[in-house]
Specification:
The protein is an alpha/beta fold. It contains 16 helices and 14 strands. Strand 12, helix 13 and strand 13 form a beta-alpha-beta unit. It is elongated. The protein binds zinc ion. Zinc ion binds next to helix 11.
Length: 460
């Protein structure tokens, strides 16, 4: 069976290719061998398949997320990692209840809606009011309060699908800021066009928070086709009334980060942190967000561990409660943010192929950053910036000045699936998933330092 093959056997298997194609002398042959053998990886698929099948959706702070932590501890232990543990923390939990949206006039019909995180509860009777529409958050901001008071706000936008996912920052504003602004102006509810790029009748949920003392109001996302429909109805020029039922409840809950390690030969050296987030939204099974990420990070660490003992400790962190406000990342930072880390990495952008590597290792480690780029090039990965890296949970620690590497995945279809019922295992392409593992294994092989191969009895 493949996964019981030794590193030496994998090198031997790769050697016929090496005999035909001369390889770059700038890439350590051991790193190249680890990279190439990772293109046959099965660990990542096993983790993503297991988590999404045996746990399913795992909303932060719920009993389902607790089951995910128990599953994670068992899995990481079974894979042979050391120091497997959970660092727990408390958080407020929001869960959705019944939800529906309906045009009452002039053309009565149902629309497909999902509550946004932390939406106010409408109660079973819902809210009914005239709809007032805006093409952007800026238009909503500029509106006099009288235009909005007592109404249900609709905010539109035109988010594009981009390889680097850059639309999410700018076009996510209706979801992130819209509910607070609408509430402050006296709206009784708000629906936004889903922050998504698909044409399916799936609304995209996601976090938002009522800030600056704004009173929670029912806040939901319409699927893209339903937002189109509402616009067409509005353009007929008659007053449009909507009934919005978004029930929800809140309670005090607990989450936690699941941590495991590959101990390095020199425990005094700072660890390399590889991560993803264990929690998911509640509607899909959290396959691309972020079952794939935790799987990729752990699979790469496992492959290094299988090949021998690295110089530096590799620390795997499966963050809890990312979706509801990067709570796991904040907890890790509060506990460990003052400790040195050799590099931070996070996979949280699906499972499609990695196309770019950015790094922020500092000028004194430029050669290391360049070595990473050279080693990744045969996977079709371009070298980007030497002064930036990103990640959701690790973002604040990167901003604090910790070094990091960012492996940029192709996000062209990520926002078709993100935070929808459609985020399921079948959306993970096993071939692209393996390319991710190969890239992560390559980077980890370089960052964790020379790997000492396990001593074997001599063959006769
Ligand atoms: Zn995520």
């Amino acid at each position: 069976m493949f996964r019981t093959l030794s590193a030496a056997a994998l090198l031997a298997a790769a050697s016929p290719l090496a005999a035909q194609v001369h390889r770059s002398p700038l890439v350590d042959p051991k790193v190249a061998a680890l990279r190439d053998s990772a293109l046959q990886d099965q660990y990542a698929w096993d983790i993503a398949e297991g988590l999404t099948t045996e746990v399913g959706p795992r909303l932060a702070g719920t009993e389902a997320e607790a089951r995910a932590r128990a599953w994670a501890v068992k899995k990481l232990t079974a894979l042979g990692f050391s120091n497997v543990r959970v660092e727990s923390f408390d958080l407020p939990v929001w869960v959705r209840g019944r939800e529906s949206a309906e045009i009452l006039a002039p053309f009565p019909q149902p629309l497909v809606v999902a509550a946004l995180g932390n939406s106010g509860s409408s109660g079973p009777g819902g809210v009914s009011a005239e709809v007032v529409a805006f093409d952007s958050v800026d238009a909503l901001k500029a509106a006099p309060d009288g235009t909005v008071r007592g109404r249900i706000v609709f905010v539109d936008h035109a988010m594009p699908a981009n390889q680097d996912g850059s639309g999410y920052g700018q076009f996510g504003a209706p979801r992130r800021q819209g509910p607070t602004i609408a509430s402050q102006k006296g709206a009784v509810g708000i629906v936004v066009r889903s922050i998504g790029t698909d044409r399916h009748r799936n609304p995209h949920t996601g976090a938002q928070e009522f800030s600056d003392g704004a009173r929670p109001i029912p806040a939901g996302a319409l699927s893209n086709p339903d937002a189109d429909q509402l616009l067409r109805i509005l353009k007929r020029g008659q007053p449009v009334t909507m009934k919005l039922v978004l029930e929800s409840r809140t309670f005090a809950g607990q989450s936690g980060n699941v941590i495991a390690e590959v101990p390095g030969r020199d425990p005094s050296l700072p660890p390399v942190l590889v991560s993803g987030h264990l929690d998911s939204w509640d509607q899909g099974t959290g396959a691309v967000d972020d079952g794939a990420g935790v799987a990729i990070a752990a699979a790469a660490a496992k492959r290094i561990m299988d090949s021998g003992r690295p110089l530096r400790t590799i620390r795997i962190v499966w963050f809890g409660a990312e979706e509801v406000g990067l709570v796991g990342g904040q907890d890790y930072r509060a506990r460990h943010g003052k400790e040195p880390h050799y590099a931070l990495l996070e996979s949280d952008f699906g499972a499609d192929k990695i196309w770019k590597v950015d790094s922020k290792l500092g000028t004194e480690r430029k050669a290391e950053a360049e070595a990473i780029g050279k080693a990744l090039a045969p996977l079709g990965i371009v070298t980007g910036s030497f002064t930036e890296a990103d990640g959701s949970d690790i973002g604040p620690m990167l901003a604090d000045g910790h070094p990091g590497v960012g492996l940029g995945q192709d996000g062209t279809r990520y926002f078709d699936l993100h935070h929808t019922p459609d985020d399921t295992l079948d959306k993970i392409d096993p071939v692209q998933l393996r390319q991710n593992v190969a890239a992560w294994t390559t980077v980890l092989a370089i960052l964790s330092g020379p790997i000492e191969e396990p001593k074997r009895p001599k063959r006769r």
